[in-house]
Amino acid sequence: MTFNAFTSVIIYFLVFSMSTVLMYIGSKKKLKTLTILSLLIIVIFSAIRLEAGTDTATYRTFYEQVSTSTIERSMVRLMSGEIEPFILLTATVGGFLGLDAWFMFGIFALITVFFSYKTSQKLDKKYYWALYGVLLIMAFPNSLNTMRQMAAMSVLSYLLSSIIDSVIKKQRVHVTKIVLFSLFAISLHYSSIALLPILLVPYIVNKFGYHKAFYVFGFLAIFIVTLYKPALLILTTVRIVSQKHYYTFVDTSGSLLNFNFLICGSLALIGALHYRHHKNANPVNEHMLPIIMTGAAYSAIGFYSGYLGRLADFFWPFAIFMLWQIISETKEPPLTKIAIIYAIAAAYFLLAFVIMGTNQLIPYDIIGG
Question: What mean pLDDT comes out for the span 308-314?
């Protein structure tokens, strides 16, 4: 069944609203059942889609091939580095159980939404339900297209937020936890390897202070914007980088309309100006500013490579939290602040996913119709 554009938008907002309301009630009443139901609504919504999402049809074809293939063929795919281990495992198990592609979509949606929820809890223990709801509107829709990448990034977001929490509390983060979650993220999407240096940011902030860290990553962002391509060309000339990788790192889909850079860069500057004139009463913010500026550095690559520029999607939870913190420190009542950030989120959804058609989420359709 395929819904028209207007109905599709209503469905998205209705599903996200239902999930957020259940998360809110669950947090207030301390009912884990409602929290689980909140997550399951999103999982089911994602699992039963037919073709909504740019790469959904490709993923469906992949699932049909792997789920009906031999173990030997899957091992060849794995050893060649053609595809990540976790999606191969999911498709193989789904095929063994006789399940269709909805199983794979559901598993990846579960990973994404669960770790988004856990990240929200780490970043704001009181209003995590509100942050979770904004993430659903602004970030989760990307997972209907870049399914593997968003799942991996949600895992790394949770890991980074856990490290921040531990550093603030002066607690030790066990190396085992860092290694296991990092490996899990890599098994979901190999691009996670390029994001692992971000896990060092809390330690850098703790040692040198967030002002110095902010400036260092700011200079890095400027360097990438201005000198990324010449530096890469030099590395290719001296054969440190191969020609094949050069064309991967500098492709034609890089764009001057770089939303991630505009958002991360703008929020970093707004945050810096804000805390220059206001006392920074929340220690989490000392980590947010350098992280958002690091996001600007990563997203700057998007001017040259659309593929690598997608790495900056990782910073969405932290960008949203930074925006939430700035709004929350105004003199407006709590409900007004929540209304403001949800209005911004709704406007972004309409602009990015409806008007511009990012990720081809409209129209929404479901299997079995």
Answer: 76
